[in-house]
Design a protein that fits this description.
Order of helices and strands: HEEEEHEEHEHEEEHEEH
Radius of gyration: 19 Å
Number of helices: 6
CATH superfamily: GHMP Kinase, N-terminal domain
CATH topology: Ribosomal Protein S5, domain 2
CATH architecture: 2-Layer Sandwich
Shape: elongated
Distance between the termini: 44 Å
Length: 260
C-alpha cells in the first residue's frame, strides 16, 4: 500500500470510529443491524440448482451442478461435494484476473465448511454403487458486486441454490430426477472489528478498515457448526461469546427468508 493509500485508509478509519462512538455507521445502521437481504432461486436453466442473493449492494450468484464420479476411499458409500469461488474484476476494482487468490480460496473453504459440518447435504443418500459410483455436488460461487460481507452472501447463496437443486438421474441414465436430499441449512453471520467496535454485516468501507473478522455458522437449533477468524487482529473470549449470541438472533430471521 502506498503512503497516499495509507493516509486515506487512516482518515476513513477515523471517520468510521467517530461514527461508531455515537452508535452509528456510514449507512445509518446500528452496530447490530443487517442490510436488506433478498433471495431469488432457479435463475440458471443449465444448472441443477441456482440462486442469487443480495445483502445491501453485495450480490452473489451460486450455481450447483451434479455429476457421477468415484467416492473417496474412506467414504465408499457417500457422495462428495466441492466448493469454489470466483472474484472477477467486474465485481470490484480490487479483484484481479488469473488463478484463485487466497481470499477466494478462504471464502470457498468457509462456505464449504459450514455446509459440511452442518450435514446440510445428506451425502449418504448420494451413493449409486458402493465403492464405484456416487453423485458429486459442485457448488460454484460467482461474486457479481462486492460491497462487503461476501462470507454471508456466498453462504446464503450456496444454501439457496442447493435447496433449488435436483439430481439429474434421467439425463445421465441413473434413475429418475429427484430433489437433492437435504437437511437444515447453516446460517452464516459475520462480524468485523475496528478499533474497539464490532459490527455485524460489514459493508465495503468497514471490510477495508477491519482489523479482525469473525464468521459463525449455526444450525437450526442455534448450535455452533463452524467458525472462522480472519485478518490479523483478534477477539477476546467475551467478544466471541457475544458475537455468537448476536448471531443466534440474526440467524433465526435470516433462516425465515431462506425458508420462504
Amino acid at each position: 500500500m502506498s503512503s497516499h493509500d495509507e493516509r486515506l485508509s487512516a482518515v476513513k478509519k477515523d471517520y468510521l470510529v467517530n461514527l461508531a462512538k455515537k452508535g452509528k455507521r456510514l449507512d445509518g445502521r446500528g452496530p447490530d443491524e443487517y442490510r436488506p437481504i433478498t433471495i431469488e432461486k432457479h435463475l440458471i436453466k443449465n444448472a441443477e440448482g441456482s440462486a442469487k442473493v443480495t445483502i445491501g449492494n453485495t450480490m452473489v450468484m451460486a450455481g450447483v451442478k451434479l455429476d457421477v464420479g468415484e467416492p473417496y476411499p474412506d467414504t465408499p458409500e457417500e457422495g462428495a461435494m466441492t466448493t469454489s469461488a470466483e472474484l472477477p474484476p467486474i465485481a470490484s476494482p480490487t479483484f484481479e484476473t488469473g488463478p484463485p487468490r487466497e481470499d477466494a480460496i478462504e471464502l470457498a473453504r468457509v462456505v464449504d465448511r459450514g455446509i459440511r459440518e452442518s450435514k446440510f447435504i445428506k451425502l449418504d443418500q448420494l451413493c449409486i454403487t458402493p465403492g464405484e459410483e456416487v453423485w458429486i455436488v459442485f457448488i460454484d460461487l460467482h461474486v457479481l458486486d462486492y460491497d462487503g460481507n461476501l462470507f454471508d452472501a456466498c453462504s446464503l447463496a450456496a444454501s439457496a441454490a442447493l435447496q433449488d437443486a435436483i439430481i439429474p438421474g434421467e439425463r445421465l441414465g441413473k434413475g429418475e430426477n429427484r430433489p437433492l436430499p437435504l437437511g437444515s441449512p447453516p446460517i452464516s453471520c459475520t462480524f468485523a472489528k475496528y478499533a474497539d467496535f464490532i459490527v455485524v454485516d460489514p459493508r465495503l468501507e468497514e471490510d477495508e478498515v477491519a482489523e479482525a473478522r469473525h464468521t459463525i455458522a449455526l444450525d437450526e437449533n442455534g448450535d455452533l457448526r463452524a467458525m472462522q477468524k480472519g485478518l490479523t487482529g483478534s477477539f477476546t473470549v467475551e467478544e466471541i461469546k457475544n458475537n455468537i449470541k448476536r448471531a443466534q438472533i440474526h440467524a433465526k430471521n435470516i433462516r425465515k427468508l431462506l425458508e420462504e
